[in-house]
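Standup notes
- DV: blocked on the single-chain target, sequence here:
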Amino acid sequence: MNRFIRLIPRLDIKGPNLVKGIQLEGLRVLGNPDLFAKEYYRAGACELFYMDVVASLYERNSLVSMISNIAQDIFIPITVGGGLRSLEDIQKVLNNGADKVALNTAVIRRPQLISEASNKFGSSTIVVCIEAIRQPDGKYLAFIDNGREHTGVDVFQWAKEAENLGAGEIVITAVDREGSGSGFDVELVGRVSDLVKVPVVAHGGASSVDDIVQLVQQTNVNGVAVASIFHYDLITKINTLQQTKSEGNTRFLQENRAFQKIKPVSLSAVVEELKKYNIVCRSV
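- DV (later): unblocked, structure below
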């Protein structure tokens, strides 16, 4: 029997650029996000997930024009997150091409916003992002502001509360794994996906297609949001397409030892590899 999964490239955005870091820090420019998004769409991505990674600093999401433009060229669901604080903020990004919104800081501070947004826009539109960091005592606590600000909120209690308040989906990020290539936190993802009935998307830690296979086989996760292994594979192609100049910073990929764990692979190659394990990628 086939297992269905959503394969979702995550694009972290700072200003006009696609960026990537480790543990949501140390951001490096990779290039023009529009080029990456179009290539992922052609390769068969189920969805795209855009995150404004500096939105918390300015308390606003700056992706409206970017999403409005790319939505004219790609026809798969787009989730947008970062700096969305109110129903008005949510309405604005939805009006400009987003299909779903991802909320973290605002709903940690005022959980009722989940219910208000779900009632107005529909629960399937509202995604709650949980940035989890495992503590020395084994507990998982939720953080905000790209994993920088401690909240003291228990991840599993918060996931269940978010579901009860009307969240239609949960994205769980293992901050201490993100960008490191050390593999998914299978325990974290497994516990969250077993706890709630809404779809769960895992993010943070993928070093290879094997990590994705292992996660899907060992948990009830519904989707996987991936950045590093796709971006680092595609950046060479993007630079080839850009005949005039190198669009992104490729030098750090060779110089930083942390990236030795990551085995870049194309999205289309992952889709084909997953089929060998009866894992089928599709939008739902």
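- Follow-up: The longest helix spans residues 228-241.
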